Structures are given as C-alpha cells and as structure tokens.
Amino acid sequence: MVFDIFFYVCASLCGLIAGSFLNVCIYRIPRGLSVASPRSACPECGAKLRPADLIPLLSFIILRGKCASCHKRIPARYPAVEAVCGALWAAMYWRFAVSFQFICYALLGTILIAVFFIDLEWMRIPNRLVLCAIVPSAAAALRYAFILAPPERFRSLYNGVHAAEPLLGLIPCAFFLLIYIITSAAGGGKSAVGMGDVKLLLPAGLALGLRLCAFAVFIAVILGGVTGAALILTKRKTKKDPIPFGPFLVFGVLAAVIFPYQFLF
Q: Cα(181)–Cα(195) distance, rounded to whole angstroms?
C-alpha cells in the first residue's frame, strides 16, 4: 500500500514535469519555433522565466496566475495541461504498474495531450507530433509481436488478441483515408475529415489494435456529434463552422488505453 502511494506520487510528479515541457511544445510547435531554445519566457512581455517560475502548478499558485514581471494573466491552459498530464501518468501507473507498457503509453498519452490542445486552437495536427507518437506506439506493438516469450508471444495485452492485432489496428486509419479521398473529391478539395486525423490514427492503431481503435473512433464520433449539435443549438457555431475532430479522437484513444476491458466484446 505504501509502495503504491509512493509510485502514484512519483508517476504524478513525472507527469507534472512532462506537462510543464508540454506547454512549451504546445506554444512553439504550431508557430514553427524550436522547443529546445531559447529559454522559456512570458509570451506577453518576453521576460525570461526564473527556475522558480517553472515549478509545475505550484508556481502558478504562488504567482496567483500572473506573470512575475508584467503581471499579465497566465492562460489557464498552462496549469490545466500540467494537471492533466499528472493525472494521466497516475492513471497509466494504475493501468500498467511499473512496466515497459507504462513508459510507452505514458509517453503516447503525453503527446496526445499536446495534439488535443494544438488542434483545439489551431485546427491542425503537426506532423512532428504524429511522428513522435508513432515511436512509443511502435515500441509497444513490437514488444507484443517479438519480445514476449511463448505462449504470451501470440497474445497481446488485450486478453487473447493475436500479436498481429497492432497491425490490424491500422485498418481504421486506412478507412478514414478512404473517406478523406472520397469526400475531398466530392467536395472540390474540401473534406469532412482532416488529414491530420487520418495520420493520428497511425499511432492510435498500433497502440490499440483493431477492436479498441475502432471503439476509440466510435467514442470520438459520438462525442464530436453531441458537442457539435450542442454548439449549434446554443448558436456558438453554425453548420458551416469547422470543429476539430482531433480532441475527440484523443479522448477516445486515452479512454480505450486506460479502460480496455470495458470495451472488449
């Protein structure tokens, strides 16, 4: 029990640190900036942040949500990303304990959080994030296919699914690609599905396999439809306004990773 609490705390702290770096990525990647340099600074006044200003969540509380230099409000997204990352890593520990899967899926989930917020604001999913997401997904898939010893080698994480399941998980990606091509041709270059969403299904399919990836897409479609209908009914959006699908897909993928047995049939 004590060890469990210790590991939960450690996982959450690692998630908070990852979330702090993720805020840099969310701000800089869509703008084509380097995530390595220069040092983090206030986007309003340009003042370099001190080490004390970079403590996840705690610095936001101490500074009362304001920049130490110009006293402008710090966007709520910053503590939100850190808190979500901390909770995600704790959830991944609950799901996988200390294991190779924990590392793979915690890293994948962290990247997906960046996708969530970038697509929500910019309506696009950067290729560099998709490529980064493929790495932990492929590592998990290769482990199931080649590293696990018999008889586990022929059974993946998801309760008796064949080791080829990660590759079969690419079928939803191919299906969405087909929809993209058809709707683009019918709409004169405009598609109901974004190409970024299609590419995001590559790492999602490898990480989840066919059945869970299909359920993740199902969850995303339902949530997207309900949210879109609510926005239209409240007149915050019109039928012609685009709504990013990436955040719903991210939610579906993370739900399928953390609660896979609830979705098995």
A: 9
User: What pLDDT digit, counting tens, does each position of 18-52 carry?
Assistant: 999 999 999 999 999 999 888 888 888 888 888 88
- Global pTM reads 0.87
Q: Where are the domains of the chain?
A: 1-98, 124-265
Measured between alpha carbons, how far is 16 from 22 in angstroms, rounded to an integer?
9
What residues are paired with 73 via a beta bridge?
Answer: 66
Backbone angles phi, psi at 38, to 5 degrees: -75, -170
